[in-house]
Design a protein that fits this description.
Blueprint lengths: L1 E5 L6 E5 L5 H11 L3 H9 L3 H12 L18 E4 L2 H14 L6 H7 L1 H6 L3 H13 L4 H9 L3 H6 L21
Length: 177
């Protein structure tokens, strides 16, 4: 999740990445907001101006340690919360995996428009939705994802149908005759 800070004067754009917030910074933000870090992140998801201001202030203090909260008061429209590319990929991949095969890419785009709207790079999100929705679903991939196996696990754990009643992810399981 990113807080995009677009300065009214000069139009400079800063991307303040929440994944870079350190524990001490999260504690400062939580104490300042008088809420837990989880609550603060939830309020960011609701585009709460005070939550955005406090987290942006904590991140900006890295470059300007003497910056006081009362001195950091951007205009409401200067701050926005957006999804970065990694988050867009996660949301879109999960959503596309859950839709029926009969859904067209255009229908998927319509349903997933909120992700496009929340993306820091809307064109990337739009293209990803259209590309993934147009790709045929591989039943083997869906079954493996349902079982919770990663690409690496699937590639390194060959399983022949009908040769094992055990779990392929268990290190103590032995193939059954």
């Amino acid at each position: 999740m990113l807080i995009v800070y677009t300065h009214a004067v000069g139009g400079e754009v800063e991307h303040l990445d929440l994944r870079t917030v350190r524990t001490a910074e999260a504690s400062i933000a939580s104490r300042t907001a008088d809420m837990s870090w989880r609550q603060l992140k939830e309020r960011l998801g609701d585009d709460d101006p005070e939550a955005m201001r406090i987290v942006a202030w904590v991140i900006k203090k890295r470059a300007t340690p003497s910056l006081r909260l009362q001195d950091f008061d951007p205009l409401v429209d200067e701050l926005a919360v957006r999804l970065d590319k990694t988050e867009v990929e996660q949301w879109v991949t999960e959503a596309i995996a859950a839709v029926d095969d009969g859904v067209t890419p255009e229908q998927a785009l319509l349903v997933l428009q909120p992700i496009v709207d929340a993306a820091v790079d809307p064109e990337f999100a739009r293209e990803l939705i259209l590309r993934l929705a147009a790709a045929p679903k591989d039943p083997a991939d869906s079954a493996a994802e349902t079982a919770g196996l990663s690409e690496k696990t699937r590639a390194s754990t060959p399983i022949e149908p009908g040769t094992s009643d055990s779990s392929p992810t268990s290190s103590t399981s032995q193939p059954q005759p």
